[in-house]
Write a structure and sequence with these properties.
This protein has helices spanning 75-88, 319-324, 330-346, 373-393, 411-510, 515-532, 545-568, and strands spanning 14-15, 67-69, 106-108, 112-118, 121-125, 129-131, 142-149, 154-157, 160-164, 169-174, 180-184, 187-191, 198-204, 210-213, 220-232, 238-249, 253-259, 262-266, 269-273, 279-285, 288-294, 298-299, 305-316, 396-408. By secondary structure, the protein is an alpha+beta fold.
Length: 569
């Protein structure tokens, strides 16, 4: 494919950034020679350069009569320049000579323009103030048409067109020859003698009307807006034609433009297309994508049809290669190649080699001894290698490929599925029996462990109780010993105190030499001794007459008792 574009009509094609794309996924097999000058060579260079389509001239830069860009001096300065050009060419001026007053008339506020129609021609009032309706000659054949703001985005009046757009806006303009140009981040004032300058649209470049999504993965690829112009054809009917296409491409995405047999890659950013020879081939994402894809029925070597459901993960690195091969999405290219490669692999395998395992991928590798490992090995090696190599031809890097599920079809497959199901059921039942036995063994082991733990607990508790009894006995014996020692010590101390008290009293009594005092002390001792017997004690004298009579009575009573005892015998 040639990359050099001959400039045939000089239309504005693409606007926006013209710097080279630095995304590593946009690298071409043949490097781009940035120093190449296509105007000095008749032989196209290899590869496809970036923004060759955007090197054409812009209609807005052409020299036009009565067309003045709006500069830093503003709209009034541009209108004054157009007025001078009209007067120098012998035509009626654009600005009115009326002088404002302050007391009556039509009012033109600061920041506004007054519009007057004078015999079909425009007259502009630029000075603020009031304009009276007399004398009558001042308004003869004139009509007041209101005011417009100096900051309005677009003003159109009697052939006069004023446009000024902000940083985020773009104005689509049709000139008197119906040629389209776009004004961004600037403005102009123009007076059309033949035809008109029509403002077709004011576009918000960051919020375009139509969002484009990948029809397969649902990823947002960007947004576009088509600008249409009404044209009257020979039959008198009006039809709409697309004259400009705006694109807003997010980061890590791109677009492919087509002009004849030549393609160009457009990087992320804000762009517009006005050349009808250039069309939008498609929008693409350069990020990773993943998808589950069902395949068509494939026949095994023993003629059993099988349908596979595969998982694909890829990343588009070179969109130009993909579009060169005629594919609109990476999925279309991968689907056809995947179907072809899997058909070749499955056609060399038997049903029995594919029936055991349900999912195939890097997580369930085999050691080669299983009969189904032939399919797994073929998938891991041949399919992955061939798919990766084939995807590179389309500018795609295949990162993962796995078979999620398979479904066998036909009577043979149904019969084999029944047999396989029975075998699987037998395996499941055997596994269930083993699981039950294992559970019972584990339960018995658990009960034994619980009994062992309980016995250990009881032994520990008995040891603790015995230790408690021994400790209590030792404590009681120690307590008794301490109490006995304390009691003995108390008795000893009491005895010592009593002995000392007696000694002190005896010493005190010994020191008394007066006989009367001694007698009195003896009587006090006697009184104390008598008091100690209590108030119910009977004292019997032991000498004198009473004592003798008591003795006689005792003897008589004893004799009487003795006679009585003998008579009874």
């Amino acid at each position: 494919m040639t990359s050099r574009i001959e400039d045939e009509d000089g239309d504005t094609v693409v606007g926006g950034p013209s710097y080279p794309v630095k995304h590593r996924g946009l690298k071409k097999s043949d490097p781009i020679d940035e120093s190449f000058d296509s105007s000095n060579s008749t032989h196209p260079r290899k590869g496809v350069s970036l923004h060759d389509f955007s090197k054409t001239a812009d209609y807005a830069l052409e020299e036009r009569p009565f067309f003045v860009p709006v500069g830093k001096d503003g709209i009034i300065a541009a209108l004054e320049k157009i007025d001078r050009q009209l007067q120098n060419s012998g035509r009626t001026g654009l600005l009115s000579n009326k002088v404002p007053v302050s007391w009556t008339g039509r009012e033109v506020a600061p920041g506004f323009l007054g519009l007057i129609k004078h015999g079909g021609l425009p007259k502009i009032l630029t000075k603020p103030g009031r304009y009276p309706g007399f004398p009558l000659r001042n308004w003869w054949a004139r009509e007041w048409c209101g005011t417009k703001g100096l900051s309005d985005t677009a003003i159109q009046f009697q052939g006069l067109t004023v446009v000024q757009v902000s940083q985020n806006q773009a104005a689509v303009i049709s000139d008197p020859q119906n040629r389209i140009f776009v004004v961004k981040n600037s403005g102009f004032a123009a007076y059309a003698i033949d035809g008109t300058y029509d403002v077709l649209a004011i576009v918000d470049q960051t919020h375009l009307s139509n969002t484009v999504k990948d029809p397969v993965t649902g990823a947002t690829l960007g947004s576009i807006a088509e600008i249409k112009m009404r044209s009257r054809i020979a039959s008198g009917k009006e039809q709409e034609y697309v004259v400009a296409l705006f694109l807003n491409i997010p980061a890590n995405n791109c677009a492919i433009l087509q002009r004849g047999d030549d393609l160009e890659l457009l990087p992320a950013g804000q762009h517009y297309i006005t050349n009808p020879n250039v069309t939008l081939r498609g929008l693409f994402t350069l990020g990773e994508n993943q998808l589950e894809m069902p395949t068509k029925d494939i026949f095994t070597r023993d003629q059993v049809p099988v349908g596979l459901r595969i998982y694909l993960k890829w990343q588009l690195m070179e969109p130009l290669k993909l579009t060169t091969h005629g594919y609109n999405t990476p999925y279309d290219a991968l689907r056809d190649k995947t179907q072809s490669i899997l058909t070749q692999i499955v056609a060399h395998l038997d049903y029995s080699s594919m029936v055991k395992q349900r999912s195939l991928g890097p997580d369930n590798l085999e050691d080669g001894t299983d009969p189904s490992s032939a399919f797994l090995d073929a998938l891991r090696t041949r399919a992955m290698d061939e798919m990766h190599e084939a995807a590179l031809e389309y500018g795609i890097v295949l990162k993962d490929l796995a078979v999620i599920d398979r479904q066998f079809k036909g009577e043979i497959a149904s019969t084999m599925d029944k047999l396989t199901t029975r075998a699987l059921q037998a395996q499941v039942e055997a596994a269930n029996v083993d699981r039950e036995n294992s559970n019972k063994v584990k339960q018995e082991e658990g009960a034994l462990a619980v009994a062992r733990i309980k016995a250990q607990s009881r032994n520990t508790q008995a040891d603790s109780e015995a230790y408690g009894v021994i400790a209590a006995a030792k404590a009681q014996a120690e307590r008794t010993k301490i109490e006995a020692l304390a009691e003995a010590e108390a008795i000893r101390l009491t005895a010592e105190a009593d002995a000392q008290a007696i000694s002190v009293r005896a010493a005190a009594d010994a020191k008394v030499t007066d006989q009367f005092a001694r007698g009195m002390e003896m009587r006090r001792v006697e009184v104390t001794r008598v008091q100690a017997f209590g108030d119910k004690t009977i004292f019997v004298p032991i000498d004198g007459t009473g004592v003798q009579m008591g003795n006689a009575m005792a003897v008589g009573m004893a004799a009487g008792i003795g006679n009585g005892l003998q008579g009874g015998a």
